[in-house]
């Protein structure tokens, strides 16, 4: 499929704009709209390890669409517009900030390896970290003054990123708790509209968040791929099925 009816007009897919780790993004005949295609791909170590995993694109797309719709219902402004197929969607074209915002509720991953924190230790207050988006530099940690000096975002934008991430965290914690899932940590990306508004962007899936089954303690996210501890799609399917039951 290379065109779709959206808001009483036809949107047609254009050229490939870029290929990310698990997605392709195409232009459309509307300069304000992009066409995203989710790939059956998993990566670890910032793309150094790559594998094709059948069905993963559909799962990521379904979970992401469900979470964006849930956040839209909770007044969180975001880039998601419309579902095209099981793997494709329309999004608003944004000027993406070169910053990843990581929120941590419990110690895991790099927070444990960097600070020798006790795994799964509850973090009070929650931890928020910024990383500079650069594959070549392995997404280094970046602080506020570095972001301001390099003009990657304004002070107001940093305040918004923190505030939005805190609110999104509360909504996601609530939702996952109803699905008997604990939200450990997650990464968000944001972009600017032409008017300078900040919108939540990228993807919301177990590729970008750590999720633990409260009943069993099992990982339901990309850690399963990172640690070679099983088939990631089993956990992703579980997340999707549980969310579909409550949303
Ligand atoms: O690796 P680390 O512990 O810093 O990751 C924190 C959270 O951010 C995890 O949920 C991870 O999946 C996510 N993350 C991401 N993309 C990155 C870095 C981290 O989605 N480039």
Automatic annotation (TrEMBL):
Source superkingdom: Bacteria
Keyword Transcription assigned: no
Pfam family, one: SAICAR_synt
Catalytic reactions of this protein: 5-amino-1-(5-phospho-D-ribosyl)imidazole-4-carboxylate + L-aspartate + ATP = (2S)-2-[5-amino-1-(5-phospho-beta-D-ribosyl)imidazole-4-carboxamido]succinate + ADP + phosphate + 2 H(+)
Keyword terms, alphabetized: ATP-binding, Ligase, Nucleotide-binding, Purine biosynthesis
Family matches, as InterPro entries: SAICAR_synt/ADE2_N, SAICAR_synt_PurC, SAICAR_synthetase, SAICAR_synthetase_CS
Record domain SAICAR synthetase/ADE2 N-terminal: where: 17-242
SUPFAM superfamilies reported for this sequence: SAICAR synthase-like (SSF56104)
Pathway connected to this protein: Purine metabolism; IMP biosynthesis via de novo pathway; 5-amino-1-(5-phospho-D-ribosyl)imidazole-4-carboxamide from 5-amino-1-(5-phospho-D-ribosyl)imidazole-4-carboxylate: step 1/2
GO molecular function, one term: phosphoribosylaminoimidazolesuccinocarboxamide synthase activity
A Gene Ontology biological process term: 'de novo' IMP biosynthetic process
Enzyme Commission designation: 6.3.2.6
Family: Belongs to the SAICAR synthetase family.
PANTHER family reported in the protein's UniProt record: MULTIFUNCTIONAL PROTEIN ADE2 (PTHR43599), SI:DKEY-6E2.2 (PTHR43599:SF3)
Protein's name in the database: Phosphoribosylaminoimidazole-succinocarboxamide synthase
Gene field: purC
